[in-house]
Structure formats: C-alpha cells, structure tokens
C-alpha cells in the first residue's frame, strides 16, 4: 500500500495552514489532502457574504486556483474519512479506501448542532449555516419557494451572520436566543443592547430568553416556529445556528484522546505520535485559561494548522495558546471583542466608556494590571493594540488612565513595549 | 510680552496661495511662534503675521509651496535718518522697556571689505595649476612655531633636533567657531563635533562645557575656558585637543553672557556644573585677569595643567587697538590667537552693542599680522580669523591677508538649516539649532547636519584649491600673508594702507 | 526583507509622510488634485502618533509572523512573494475587520468609505516608499533587515 508522507483531513483554514506550515520547513515532500466537500478550498465565513450577493463564486476561494499545484499538494475532493486507525497509520474513507500515512493532520472542523428532539426539525426549509452548500441550498430554497419570513435560532456569531444575509435578501427575520442577550458568549449587556438596536433598526425582531420548541409544518414545509413561550411566528425558513460540535467521530474508540474535541498538546500533536489535529476539531491550550479549550475561530484555526504543519515537517514550533476573539459587523456597526469580556473574577477591574448617540462603547477588563479582555463597538480602530496587550501580558499600570481616551495609541503604551513594537521586526505570535 | 499692535506693524506678511494650500497643517505644526492656525469650522488655515520671524520653516516644509513671506508692504514714511528699523526699535523699547536683544551677527548695511578685495590669477608666467590633476596641499598646522630649527646629520640623513611645540593638524584651514551647548542644541553640538572629526578639523565647545557624550570626539574639539568657567575642571582641560581662553567675542566685545535658567535643564546643568534651573551668568571680564601678566598666569596655569601637551588659544574681539592687544597676548604665551570681527555671530547680544562696537575682521587681521611681523613674533602664534566668513573666497582672502586658518560659526549653522531669523535668544529656533525645547531640538537630525557640514567643508576645500591653482600656488603655506595676491576695489588710500594691499590695477 | 525603520528620536510630527502617502495612493498622484478630490476617501497607510514632544510615524511593520494574514478570512491579506510586504488586496477584502482586531500596532484602518481594510503597501509602485522619501528629517529609513 502506498504511504503518504503527509496526509491532511480537511480542506479549509486549518488544513491550508497545515500545508503552508509544512512548506515553510519542507519544500518538496508531497502532501495529500482528503476533503469531504467537492470545492476548491473556500472560505467558510464568506458564505454569508455570498448569500447576500456581496461576494460572487469566483471570490469565495481561500487560496488562488494554482495553490495545490504551487505547493505540490495532491487533493482528493469529495472523500469523507470515516475512521482513523492510529496503530496501523491508516484512514478509512466512506467509499471504502484505506489510505496509509506517515504523518496525519486532522483538520476536519465541526458540525453544526441541530437538536433532534424538536419536532419538525427535519422539515423542508430547515437549514444549518456552515458550508457553501448550506448557503447554496438556502438561496435556492428562498428563490424557489418565494420565502418571505425566516427565523434564525441562535443569536451567536453564525446566527447573526446568516441573519444579515437573510435581511439583505429582503426577508422579514426574527432571531430567537436562549440567553438574555445576543452574542452572549462575547458581549456584555451594554454591547448586546447596542447591537440589538442596530438589528431592530434594520427590521429584525430580536427575542431573547427564548427558544424554538417546535416547527409547525404543512406538507413537510415549514409554516411556523412555535416558541418555548408559546408564541407562534409565521415563517417559511428556519436556520439553526446554535453551535458546532467538533468532528470527532472518526477517532472514536481509538487511542487518540478526546474530550469535547480532539485533545492536542502545545505542539498540536494528539495523544498519539505523528497524529496532529488543528482548527475547530481540536481542543488546544488557551491563553487566560489552565484548561484546553475548543475556540472555533479562524485565526486560531490558522495558527494551529500552521504550527502543526511545521512540527509535522520536523520543526519544534510551540503553540502559545488561543484566545477567544471576534470581529462582527452588525448592520454596519463594527464590533470587536477579545478575551475575557464578562469577568467572573471579583478581582478584575473594569473600565468602560459609552456614547449611545455615536454609538460607541469601549470596555476594558484588567486583572493584576494586565488587560485580559476588551469590547469595542463602533470605534474599533485601535482594538488590535489591546489584543496585543492581552497576548503579550503587558503590565499597563503606567498607562491605565489613557486606555479609554480618544487618542489612545501605541504612543501611550509602556515605553519598552512601545519601542519593541515601533522599532522591532514586527511581533511574535 | 505681546507688543501692542497700535504702534508696531508686523515685520513680515505671510501670503498663502489659496489655489495651492491643501490645508494639510504642516505649517501649523511647524511654527513655534503659533503664526498659523487651522480653523476647523471653515476648513482653512489662517496666518497671523504679527509673530512671524520669517524663519521660513513653514514655507520650506509646505508640500505645495503655497506660502511666501515678504517684508510687510506697509512702509514707514521714507526717512533716511529715522529708518524703519530705528523706528521699530524705538516703538518696541518705549513699549516694553529694557535692553534690545538680538541674535546672530551684525546685519547692518556697513561695507563688507571681503567684497572690496579681489584675488589674483596667473597668466603666461608662473602658470596656473589644475587641482584635479596635481597635488594641492591644504594641510595646516596651528600652534607656536620655533624661532629657528636645528638639524643634525645621522648617517648622511638630516634630522631635526628642535623640539616642536604642540600643534593642531587641520586638513582644511577652516574650524568651527565656539558655540556652546546651551546656546545651541545638543544635536547641533554633536553634528559639529562629528563633522570636525570626519573632515579632520576642530569644533569648539564654547563656554558651555563638554557634554559627557561628546567626549568621544574630544580629540577634535577645542575646549573653552571663559569668564564663567562653566564645566571647567582638570579633566575637561585634558580631554580636549586644545584649550581656548575666551577674552572677548566679536558680536559683543566687553559684554558677558547670560543663559536664562529655564534653558538650564538636567543635561546642561551637568555639563556646565551649575545647579539646574539657575541662570548661567558669564561676567564681562575674567575676574582674575586685569593685565597681560594676569593673562600670562592663566595661560601658564593651564599649560601646567595639561603638561604643555596642547596648544593654548586666546580669543579676543576685534576692537580699536587690537594689534597692541594681540601682541600682548602672544607675548603672554598664547600659541594661537583667535580674532573675532564685529560681524561675528552670537546666541544673544544687546542690539546696540552688536551693531556698534568693534571693527571689521579684515582690518583687525591685517593690522595684527603686520604688527606681529614687525615685532618679529608672528611665528610665535598662529592667527585665526573669525566673524562673518561666508564663503571659500573669504577664506582665501583671509589667508592671503595673514590668517593661518579661519573659524566659521554662522556659515556652519546655515549649512545645518539656520535661516538667520535672528531669534536665537528667544529659545524658539524653528530649525532646532538655537533651542533646548525638546519638541524643537528633534528637528535637527545630527546625522543629516553632520553630512551637510562635511559637504560644506569639502566643497570649500575644493574651491580653495581652485583659487590657489589659479594663482599658481600649490600649498596653502604659500598663500599665507601673501598680500601680493590681493587688490583693493573702491578703497581709500588709508584703507589700502592698513590692509597692506595695492589697489586694483596697481 | 526591506523594511521601514522608524527613528522615533528624529520624528518632528510634521505629518508630511501622511500627506505624501495619501497622494501616492490617489488616482491622480498630484498633490493638490488628490487633496481636493480624494482627501476624504483615502486613508493613508501611515499615521503619526504624538504625545508631548514624542512622536513617530507608524505604519504596518510587515511582521514576520503577520497575524493579519492568519486572521484574514478571504485570503485578501497576503505576503508579496517578491518584496515580502504584507499587502491587502482591496478587491477581495469584505471588511470583516478581523485584521483590525489582531494588528498589535493598529496599522490597519477602515477605508475607503469604511468598506475595506486599508494599510501600508510599502508603495508597490515606487522604488522607495514615499513616506521615506519625503521625511524631512530621516525619521523613516528604508533598509534591509540584514543591516540591523
Ligand atoms: C458562517 C460562518 C461565519 C464565520 N465567521 C467567522 C468570523 O467572522 N471570524 C472567525 O474567526 N471565525 C468565523 N467562523 C469560524 C471559522 O470559519 C472556523 O473557525 C474555521 O473555518 C475553522 O477552520 P477549520 O479548518 O478548523 O474547519 P472548517 O472550516 O470547519 O473546515 C473543515 C474541513 O474539513 C472537511 N471535513 C470535515 N469532515 C471531514 C471528513 N470526515 N473527511 C474529510 N473532510 C472532512 C470539510 O469539508 C472542511 O473542508 C465562521 C464560520 C462560519 C460557518
Ligand atoms: S539659529 Fe535658529 S533662531 Fe537663530 S537665526 Fe538661525 S534659525 Fe533663527
């Protein structure tokens, strides 16, 4: 049986980063990619832009057309891996192939969660929203069925992204969120309220502390969403965006250790030598936390994939830990949240500045004179500086009063760190 | 204090071409006198000419050349006696009182004798020399020369047995005049020191002491001892390449100095060895010198302190009986005599003193050189001419009149960017030269300034060689005191006589 | 690679770098025209930060491990293979601001019209970046890493 020196499962951010990581160290050993989907590597976060028509087919691709060729990658599309055999160093595909590897990178991402116990959740008109095909199916359904109203279940990142596209398509939309506010994982009450106002101004109905209990159908077609509170919302389309679960079935019952995702060390290696995991599928060391966490965001997926790739090719690259962060544009209102934004720790100090008119909101969370979290709504231009402060664990005691000021900038930072940024060779990740 | 508008019109008018002004605000940010202001409501830049000193900083940096600055067009009623500047001074003084102050050298329309002397060139006989093809010597030694030299013959080869006094070796017969750290910025001091080192000449600390970071250039720095004795200790004397005793300064003969306390920051206080924030007052006289004998004592005290290893310079202002004073200084033991003419620059001087005291360097130099020759002591000291040397031709003429080398101050500052606004005494030099305000001193990048100074001296060296070549002279030695190479133009017989030159056509 | 070295001690806060950056990235490349017609729509890739007498002109550091490239969801942010500069292909940028979120020196701005990311491209069309050429005090110097 032919052995593949580098085998990668997945064809998205973490996988591509894996290729780029390997190529930083090893110029020519062939790489093989096994991908479930039929497309050239594309960008998942772009599917909402595609659905709203802001981005067309040609601009969906994450890397140029000649990427595989340039990087000597053998890519096998529409091949789903169903299991991994770490002992024999092989993987098994859905159509019966067994493929042997020397080094394996599992970058299979996650699967959207659809609660099976909700009646009607298998009806026509119920969708999830993570792949290009999801978006394609929604667009086809909307045009074919003449959909007027839609309900999005889940007011998190992906829920809001789909919501924006649906609004753009001219649908009347309602978002139902279980928590007391939208974007509850990353936003505090104030930021969430500002975001909610923007949504409402765009015509979206926002319902918090609520969820869909049942989907009423007629001829398998969605007719109504019936909420937990008994409220009926007439709609022809329901999008479930209540979270993703790492794709770990393929390693079930193997010696590869899993928890919520596949557990990896600070070299992105799983509990089994030569088997690596990266991206949404991996549960990796995280900043501001003692435990390994799944943080399903693109920058982490890239960094993890790249580190895994470099290590697979023989380098000794450390993964310094992921950080929860997100940049979300809510109907034209830019927002950024980084790190621990709603501290449960009593010792944390919180600085805020709110201007409801603008609107603009800034919140900085400090712990032991170090920034551990930040929220920016409206005025986001300097947010990156705070991400840097969190990652580098810089003591900001000397510039604390300046953190929220209008002209806060690199110049306000502690001198040594400032000089490092200004005259250094760029930052280390 | 703001002058009252009802008596004093602005000196300058700023003209902003609205077609070209892009409201970028560079002028607003560059003016230390707050002349320009951006009006956010109307999105235009306004200029209030009242405080303009015509330093050209804004106009030079304006990316569209939208700004020009002219003398204020409203002229005083013509009056040959009561000129505009006289009237202005009167109004100003009546308004705020006190002594009128100014910066830089005398700007009055008095005759420039350099321009009334012309250099010679060879034709037919004694053919001219092409400096690009043939060697030309500008190397100059500054210091006391022996009365005579003795030789002995060893294995048929002559060998000099005379012990020579210490000398300074100059690759170009041009040094930088004394400008103290305090009157000029640290960056300007660094640039002068670096340039002197690169070219192979000397910079001069002035009376402000030697900043510790400038010690690395000390072998190209002359350290000055002035009446305030700022920064002077045995270490200071021994660090420099030579020691200069400053008796007088051309811009303000008979007057001391005053560096206001607000300029005495930590670095200047450490360098001058005085408490931070106190005024640095240089008395008019050295309080231990009241006679030539006293001067001799100081000269020899310093010679002792440096173990006779360095030449001692004495700097005097060109005043009426300068030749007698010069003779006394040389007899008192000065190895080098620096004569500073009445056009010499300054960081601050009373206007009346600057404009009315002293004599032109041309006459002082000729008179001193003649006198020392007559007395047979010319070789005992080198002569340095300073005060208003503007170009290489001035240098050549000064050497032909009798100087060994010259000092340049203003010309060096101009090379660094000075636009002669004469506001050095305000501490708001927009070019970052005559200021200690950290916001302004940054404007002078010492590396750029060094490069420009080096460039200036190198081009002057080339020009001097060209002039010498034209005269058929291939070493600066042969030009020194060679007044045959000078002719006067439009000078009276008496002037020609003092200068020791013939009239053009003679 | 060749980078812009910032000499903080020589920055005089005149902002000529910002002005010339704007001109260089305008359609006409003529200063007066650019300011009349495009001033509002171009965000210069260099910004002078100032506090008291300390100032410096900061632009993208073209980091070796550029976090903005890693965070870019479209692939619009890429490293130019020739110059190694970090470049934003504005035709592909969708304005998600992930790059703004991760740039530790805040060198990426929203513009034009807050639609796409705007940053220093080391003046791809000029041999030496115009901010360096036009800095009157050599506070910005274009030099090879190897020189350092
Ligand atoms: C709509 C949307 C918007 C988003 N917006 C943002 C955002 O603004 N910011 C942000 O940071 N993140 C965002 N994300 C998250 C981001 O897309 C993910 O973090 C990132 O895509 C993770 O990359 P990955 O490579 O780990 O996994 P995925 O992108 O999930 O890719 C998994 C890959 O594995 C393949 N695969 C899966 N299972 C198998 C199998 N069994 N066999 C073979 N191949 C398999 C898939 O086909 C796919 O190619 C968004 C995601 C979505 C869906
Ligand atoms: S040194 Fe400065 S203040 Fe003095 S004249 Fe020159 S430019 Fe003006």
Describe the structure.
The complex is a heterotrimer of chains A (429), B (506) and C (148). With 429 residues, chain A is of the alpha/beta class. Chain A has 9 helices and 24 strands. In chain A, helix 1 (13-25) links the parallel strand 1 (3-9) and strand 2 (31-34). In chain B, the strands form 8 sheets. Chain B has an 8-stranded parallel sheet with strand order 11-21-20-18-17-14-13-12. Chain B has 16 helices and 23 strands. In chain B, helix 11 (392-401) links the parallel strand 20 (382-386) and strand 21. With 148 residues, chain C is of the alpha+beta class. Chain C is 22% helix and 22% strand. At the A-C interface, helix 7, strand 20, strand 21, helix 8 and helix 9 of A face strand 1, strand 2, strand 3, helix 3 and helix 4 of C. The structure holds flavin-adenine dinucleotide and iron/sulfur cluster. Residues 55, 103-104, 413, 418-424, 429, 431, 433-434 of chain B line the site of iron/sulfur cluster.
Question: Strands, helices and their partners?
Answer:
The complex is a heterotrimer of chains A (429), B (506) and C (148).
Chain A: E1 3-9, H1 13-25, E2 31-34, H2 47-51, H3 67-70, E3 73-76, E4 81-85, E5 90-93, E6 98-106, E7 110-112, E8 126-128, H4 132-145, E9 149-153, H5 157-168, E10 172-176, H6 189-201, E11 205-207, E12 212-218, E13 221-227, E14 232-234, E15 237-240, E16 244-246, E17 262-263, E18 275-277, E19 282-283, H7 298-312, E20 325-330, E21 333-339, E22 349-355, E23 360-367, E24 370-377, H8 383-392, H9 415-423
Parallel strand pairs in A: 1-2, 1-6, 2-3, 6-18, 8-15, 9-10, 9-15, 10-11, 17-19
Antiparallel strand pairs in A: 4-5, 5-6, 7-16, 12-13, 13-14, 20-21, 21-24, 22-23, 23-24
Chain B: E1 12-16, H1 26-30, E2 36-39, E3 44-47, H2 57-61, E4 67-71, H3 84-96, E5 101-102, E6 117-119, E7 140-142, E8 151-154, E9 157-160, E10 168-170, E11 174-176, H4 186-199, E12 203-204, E13 221-225, H5 234-239, E14 242-246, E15 257-259, H6 266-272, E16 280-282, H7 292-305, E17 312-317, H8 322-331, E18 336-340, E19 349-350, H9 351-356, H10 361-374, E20 382-386, H11 392-401, E21 405-408, H12 410-416, H13 438-441, H14 446-471, H15 476-479, E22 486-488, H16 493-499, E23 502-503
Parallel strand pairs in B: 11-21, 12-13, 13-14, 14-17, 17-18, 18-20, 20-21, 22-23
Antiparallel strand pairs in B: 1-4, 2-3, 5-19, 6-22, 7-10, 8-9, 15-16
Helix pairs in contact in B: 4-14, 8-10, 11-14
Chain C: E1 2-6, H1 16-24, H2 31-38, E2 46-51, E3 54-59, H3 67-71, E4 77-79, E5 86-88, H4 98-102, E6 109-110, E7 117-118, H5 130-134, E8 140-144
Antiparallel strand pairs in C: 1-8, 2-3, 4-5, 6-7
């Amino acid at each position: 049986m032919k052995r593949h020196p580098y085998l990668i499962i997945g064809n998205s951010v973490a996988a591509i980063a894996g290729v780029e990581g390997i190529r930083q160290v090893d110029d020519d050993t062939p790489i093989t990619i096994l991908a479930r989907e039929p497309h050239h590597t594309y960008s998942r976060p772009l599917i909402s832009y595609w659905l709203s028509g802001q981005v067309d087919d040609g601009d969906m691709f994450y890397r140029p057309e000649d990427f595989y060729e340039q990087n000597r990658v053998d890519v096998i599309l529409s091949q789903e891996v169903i299991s991994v055999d770490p002992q024999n160093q092989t993987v098994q595909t859905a159509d019966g192939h067994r493929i042997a590897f020397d080094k394996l990178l599992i970058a299979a991402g996650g699967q959207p969660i659809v609660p099976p116990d909700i009646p009607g959740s298998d009806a026509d008109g119920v969708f999830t929203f993570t792949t290009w095909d999801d978006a394609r199916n929604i667009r086809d359904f909307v045009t074919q069925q003449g959909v007027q109203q839609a309900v999005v279940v889940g007011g998190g990142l992906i829920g809001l992204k789909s919501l924006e596209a649906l609004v753009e398509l001219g649908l009347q939309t309602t978002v139902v969120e279980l928590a007391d506010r939208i974007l509850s994982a990353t936003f505090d009450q104030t930021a969430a309220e500002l975001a909610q106002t923007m949504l409402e101004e765009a015509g979206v109905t926002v319902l918090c502390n609520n969820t869909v209990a049942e989907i009423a159908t007629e001829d398998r077609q969605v007719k109504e969403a019936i909420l937990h509170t008994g409220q009926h919302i007439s709609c022809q389309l329901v999008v479930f965006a209540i979270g993703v679960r790492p794709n770990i079935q393929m390693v079930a019952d193997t010696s590869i250790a899993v928890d919520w995702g596949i557990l990896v060390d600070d070299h992105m290696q799983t509990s089994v030598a030569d088997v690596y995991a990266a991206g949404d599928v991996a549960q990796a060391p995280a900043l501001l936390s003692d435990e390994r966490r799944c943080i399903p965001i693109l920058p982490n997926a890239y960094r993890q994939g790249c580190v895994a790739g470099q290590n697979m090719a023989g380098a000794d690259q450390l993964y310094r830990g992921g950080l929860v962060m997100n940049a979300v544009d809510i109907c034209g209102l830019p927002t950024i949240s980084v790190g621990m934004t709603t501290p449960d720790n009593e010792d944390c100090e919180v600085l805020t500045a709110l201007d409801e008119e603008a609107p603009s909101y800034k919140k900085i969370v400090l712990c032991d004179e170090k920034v551990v979290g930040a929220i920016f709504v409206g005025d986001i231009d300097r947010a990156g500086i705070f991400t840097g402060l969190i990652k580098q664990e810089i003591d900001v005691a000397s510039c604390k009063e300046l953190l929220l000021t209008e002209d806060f900038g690199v110049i306000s930072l502690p001198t040594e760190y400032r000089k490092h940024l200004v005259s250094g060779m760029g930052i280390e990740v | 204090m703001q002058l009252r508008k009802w008596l004093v019109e602005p000196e300058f008018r700023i003209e902003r071409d609205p077609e070209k002004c892009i409201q970028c605000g560079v002028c607003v940010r560059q003016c230390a006198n707050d002349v320009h202001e951006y009006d956010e409501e109307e999105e235009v830049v306004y200029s209030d000419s009242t405080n303009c000193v015509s330093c050209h900083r804004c106009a030079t940096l304006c990316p569209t050349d939208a700004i020009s600055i002219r003398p204020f067009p409203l002229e005083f009623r013509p009056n040959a006696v009561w000129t505009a500047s006289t009237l202005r001074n009167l109004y100003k003084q009546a308004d705020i009182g006190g002594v009128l102050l100014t910066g830089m050298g005398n700007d009055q329309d008095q005759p420039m004798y350099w321009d009334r002397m012309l250099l010679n060139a060879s034709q037919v006989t004694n053919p001219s020399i092409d400096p690009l093809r043939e060697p030309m010597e500008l190397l100059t030694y500054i210091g006391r020369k022996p009365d005579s030299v003795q030789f002995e013959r060893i294995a048929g080869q002559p060998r000099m047995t005379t012990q020579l006094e210490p000398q300074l070796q100059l690759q170009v017969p041009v040094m930088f005049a004394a400008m103290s750290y305090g009157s000029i910025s640290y960056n300007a001091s660094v640039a002068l020191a670096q340039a002197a080192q690169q070219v192979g000449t000397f910079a001069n600390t002035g009376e402000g002491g030697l900043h510790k970071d400038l010690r690395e250039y000390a072998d190209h720095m002359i350290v000055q001892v002035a009446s305030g004795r700022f920064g002077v200790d045995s270490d200071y004397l021994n660090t420099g390449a030579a020691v200069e005793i400053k008796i007088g300064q051309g811009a303000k003969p008979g007057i001391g100095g005053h560096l206001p306390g607000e300029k005495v920051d930590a670095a200047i206080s450490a360098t001058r060895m005085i408490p931070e924030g106190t005024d640095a007052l240089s008395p008019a006289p050295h309080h231990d010198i009241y006679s030539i004998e006293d001067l001799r004592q100081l000269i020899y005290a310093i010679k002792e302190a440096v173990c006779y290893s360095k030449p001692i310079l004495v700097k005097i202002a060109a005043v009426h009986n300068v030749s007698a004073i010069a003779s006394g200084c040389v007899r008192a033991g000065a190895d080098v005599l620096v004569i500073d003419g009445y056009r010499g620059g300054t960081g601050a001087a009373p206007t009346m003193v600057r404009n009315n005291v002293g004599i032109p360097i041309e006459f002082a130099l000729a008179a001193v050189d003649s006198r020392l020759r007559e007395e047979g002591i010319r070789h005992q000291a080198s002569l340095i001419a300073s005060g208003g040397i503007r170009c290489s031709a001035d240098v050549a003429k000064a050497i032909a009149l009798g100087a060994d080398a010259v000092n340049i101050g203003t010309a060096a500052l101009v090379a660094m960017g000075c636009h002669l606004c004469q506001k050095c005494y305000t501490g708001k030099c927009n070019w970052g030269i005559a200021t200690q305000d950290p916001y302004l001193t940054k404007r002078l990048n010492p590396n750029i300034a060094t490069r420009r100074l080096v460039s200036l001296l190198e081009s002057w060296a080339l020009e001097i060689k060209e002039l010498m070549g034209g005269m058929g002279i291939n070493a600066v030695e042969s030009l020194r005191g060679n007044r045959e190479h000078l002719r006067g133009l439009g000078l009276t017989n008496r002037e020609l006589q003092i200068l020791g030159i013939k009239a053009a056509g003679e | 690679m060749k980078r812009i070295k910032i000499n903080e001690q020589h920055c005089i806060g005149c902002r000529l770098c910002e002005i010339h950056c704007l001109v260089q990235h305008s359609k006409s490349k003529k200063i007066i025209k650019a300011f009349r017609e495009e001033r509002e729509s171009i965000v210069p890739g260099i910004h002078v930060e100032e506090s008291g007498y300390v100032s410096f002109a900061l632009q993208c550091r073209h980091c070796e491990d550029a976090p903005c490239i890693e965070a870019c969801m479209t692939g619009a942010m890429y490293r130019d293979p020739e110059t190694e500069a970090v470049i934003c292909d504005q035709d592909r940028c969708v304005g998600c601001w992930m790059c703004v979120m991760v740039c530790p020196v805040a060198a990426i701005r929203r513009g034009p019209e807050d639609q796409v990311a705007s940053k220093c491209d080391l003046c791809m069309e000029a041999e030496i970046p115009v901010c360096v050429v036009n800095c009157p005090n050599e506070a910005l110097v274009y030099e090879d890493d190897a020189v350092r």
